[in-house]
Automatic annotation (TrEMBL), chain A:
This is Nitrogen regulatory protein P-II. One of its GO terms (biological process) is regulation of nitrogen utilization. InterPro entries: N-reg_PII, N-reg_PII-like_a/b, N-reg_PII/ATP_PRibTrfase_C, N-reg_PII_CS, N-reg_PII_urydylation_site. The lineage of its organism: Bacteria, Pseudomonadati, Pseudomonadota, Alphaproteobacteria, Rhodobacterales. Residues 1-20 are annotated as: Disordered. Keywords: Nucleotide-binding, Phosphoprotein, Transcription, Transcription regulation. One of its GO terms (cellular component) is cytosol. Pfam families: P-II. The modification O-UMP-tyrosine is found at Y96.
TrEMBL record, chain B:
Belongs to the ammonia transporter channel (TC 1.A.11.2) family. This is Ammonium transporter. PROSITE patterns: AMMONIUM_TRANSP (PS01219). Keywords: Ammonia transport, Membrane, Signal, Transmembrane, Transmembrane helix, Transport. Its main location: membrane. It comes from Cribrihabitans marinus. Residues 44-431 form the Ammonium transporter AmtB-like domain. It is a multi-pass membrane protein. The keyword Repressor does not apply. GO terms for molecular function: ammonium channel activity.
Amino acid sequence: MCKKYATGPESGPESDPHPSPSPLWRAFFCMCEMQGQACGVKGKDVRLIIATIKPFKLEEVREALTGIGVRGMMVTEIKGFGSQSGHTEIYRGAEYAVNFVPKVKLELVVPAGMADQVVETIAGTAKTGKIGDGKIFVLDVAQAMRVRTGETNEDAI
Amino acid sequence: MNLIKTLAPAAALIALPQLGLAQEAAPEGAAAAQTQFILNSLLFLVGGFLVFWMAAGFAMLEAGLVRSKNVTMQLTKNMGLFSLAAIMYWLIGYNIMYPGDGNWIIEGVFGTIGPKDIKSDIDAGGYSNASDFFFQLMFCATTASIVSGTMAERVKLWPFLAFVVVLTGVIYPTEASWQWGGGWLSQIGFADFAGSTLVHATGGFAALAGALVLGPRIGKYAKDGRVVPIPGSNLALATLGTFILWLGWFGFNGGSQLAMGTLEDADAVAQIFANTNMAAAAGAVAAMVLTQVMYGKTDLTMVLNGALAGLVSITAEPLAPSLFQALIIGGIGGVIAVFTVPMLDRMRIDDVVGAIPVHLIAGFWGTFIVAWTNDEASFVTQIIGFAAIGAFVFVVSYVVFMILKATVGLRVGEEEEINGLDMAELGMEAYPEFAKG
């Protein structure tokens, strides 16, 4: 039971936010942990969404995400290559390859139940239809904690 | 120029009491001579501090065109070289360059040794002796500034400064004495008004020697022969530096009229200002259009080089040309910069800021074309003068660099170069922003 609960997406319909485990459940999960088994109740609560998008789309994506109730995100300017690969530029008469293309990386930690909506919103807003629009990854988060209060997991978001 | 306009009546006022006192004893000419003395000295002083400001221009241009890990070092070198030039030019430079009649150690070739004295002979012939020294000193420092840009990002601090001592104490004063000190080049009719050859090509030749001895930066030329561009850290600083140089050049060329006490001289200074400005603008526009046409995008760093190449081109003769001729001369200077920057790369001579195209090659163009607008110059003599100074400066610089390389070493180690000279040689960064609160 514990193991099954831990495996994530297929364990329950996405539309149904996972209810906070009762004290009894908590005790049970802790026993699982003590037995050295993977115990995924935390992973089931919270998802990490990593998205790489075109830099000029950042503001539009941010507005769309706050519009659906996202309350925080981390943004990093990155460079990388994918199927878009690079292009060439000229500096002082010498041609050079730009092997890494600038992108913006978004990292959002959201309640699992919101994950699909967030993914759809990012995909819908960041899409230009041209090569290099980016990618989105969804990961389980083992644990989340708000530093100020010590709240964990979904409460910490 | 506004300053000069407002100060001219003031100068006349100062002279007035003497005018009254001397009315009976001396002719009015005495007051006129004093006014001339004041205005001539003022031209030297204003010109001098404008040329001084070019040191800031070079520092900003170079700081912007090196990578951020080498910015502190580049600034340090610029402070060091200017200050050393100031001391060396006093200690031996000035008297090697201006020995005066009968004082040459080798007549017309090498002047006299000794520190410059500004307390005696205050009136050096219609201007203040000290104002002349101050003005000439700045040209010496400019020559050294040119070298540091080319050799950036890989040369050690102290060996570089040791070269600056030789350059500003001996090399520059010697070749400049051949022309401005009344030496052999001036006697055969060479013409270089403000120093396309004497200052700029000299700096360029020393830079060329340095670049050859040093070798290119790690990673600049790939094994398969490709040129790998190394973009600079801050084009805003590079642009500010270029505008500062442009401003300073008014003093460089205008001050080289050496007199402003008569209507003719005042007008000449004004014409020089206008021509100097025109040549810079033409060089910038030429580079802007040319890079757009050749590469599909305008390259700002080339536009900066183009403006400076225009300035160098007009420096050998900023007075004789009409504005249209100044436009042609400066514009071709800009074209030269755009074509010779990649040419040097093909020759695997790594010139970080483009000083060799701008100062040496445009310097040749400016020196050569003097004969177009100045009837007293000839193309042949211009080439002889340029070649003589170029050969002398290049050979002596090359030897000095080789000696430094063999003794104390000229270049930092591979790891130091990759980590950046700021941390390796100085232990401080220009932009220490990460995790320092």
